[in-house]
Specification:
Length: 316
């Protein structure tokens, strides 16, 4: 099918079947443009909760995002256009690894990043995102009355918080990382600074510490977006995160200039959602084929995983 006709069909089906499309900032721009809501995983999960009029929610993002939305909205049908859209960072931690660290540090709470499976969340104490990691960690230390905190699986996000608190943060496991952000380097910073003199440098806290240290601003996708609005720069912005956010910025705030810190920072998994599988998911809504796209978290896991997620929502 031609792209234009696929887009028209998606728009028509969305209206006809009362479906809301939620897209992450890292989604291909043509998917973002079809979404009812665009945001980070926390923002999308929160909006999903407040949604009253949609029968179905299609979550265009990687698997853990759809799972999180489903755990927080157990009475809603959450659909994913492609179950193969995984997150390599989430694979760095699992209940077995958690158990090893819990045996060593039995009295220390475990905070896990939202980029984790439902099983991992179910075995943790509190969850966090890159928007609220610092706030969550400080509140957990206070409430658990401890200065030793287990934190995983992203070693770079752990370094980001470690540099901003006096707490003893143990990374679980030691070397977890997002390959897209972890490969950003000082060389990228040097090259892009030369190419775009005077541009502000924004980087994601999943980037290596030496890259974070060169930034004018370190923040999550939604925080970077806000920063570009609050701090306009006629010389533009060098943006150190997945390319989807740069496409979003160019679309929504075209009066400013945005340059990728590295043009190869593309998450293959995020791009596994496309017009074709989005159309197929919409087409299946309300038919027996719907089950092929439905996110199902076991009741047991969902009831355990909702606890760290709810704690995070209270803290942030
Ligand atoms: O929380 C999210 O959605 C992720 C994974 C990154 C971000 O900064 O938005």
């Amino acid at each position: 099918m031609e792209t234009e006709s696929l887009i028209d069909k998606i728009k028509a089906l969305k209206r006809q079947k009362q479906v809301s499309i939620f897209a992450h900032y890292y989604q291909p721009i043509e998917i973002q443009k079809l979404a009812n809501y665009i945001g980070d995983s926390l923002g999308l999960a929160k909006i999903a909760r407040e949604q009253k009029d949609s029968k179905y929610i299609i979550l265009a993002g990687v698997h853990f995002m759809a799972e999180t939305a489903s755990i927080l909205n157990q009475n809603k049908v959450i659909l994913s256009p492609n179950f193969e859209a995984g997150c390599p960072l989430a694979s760095f931690i699992d209940p077995k690894i958690i158990n090893e660290f819990k045996m060593k540090y039995p009295n220390s709470p475990l905070i896990v990043y939202v980029n984790t499976t439902a099983e991992t969340k179910a075995n943790s104490d509190v969850c966090c995102t890159s928007s609220n990691s610092l706030k969550v960690i400080e509140n957990v230390a206070k409430d658990w009355k401890t200065d030793t905190i287990l934190f995983g699986p992203d070693k770079n996000l752990a370094n980001f918080v470690r540099n901003r608190t006096s707490l003893n943060i143990i990374t679980v496991p030691e070397k977890g990382n997002c390959p897209i952000h972890n490969f950003l380097s000082i060389k990228d910073i040097e090259r892009e600074k030369k190419n775009h003199p005077g541009a502000s440098i924004l980087v994601h806290p999943e980037s290596p510490l030496e890259v974070q240290n060169e930034a004018d601003f370190i923040g999550s996708t939604s925080q970077m977006l806000q920063y570009t609005k609050d701090n306009p720069n006629p010389n533009g912005f060098i943006v150190g995160t997945e390319i989807g956010l740069i496409e979003h910025l160019r679309w929504k705030n075209p009066e400013q200039s945005y340059y990728p810190l590295n043009k190869y920072a593309i998450c293959k998994n995020m791009k596994k959602i496309n017009l074709k599988n989005l159309f197929e998911t919409l087409d299946a809504c309300g038919t027996p084929s719907q089950s092929k796209y439905e996110i199902r978290v076991s009741e047991e896991s969902a009831n355990l995983a909702i606890v760290p997620l709810e704690r995070m929502l209270q803290y942030s």
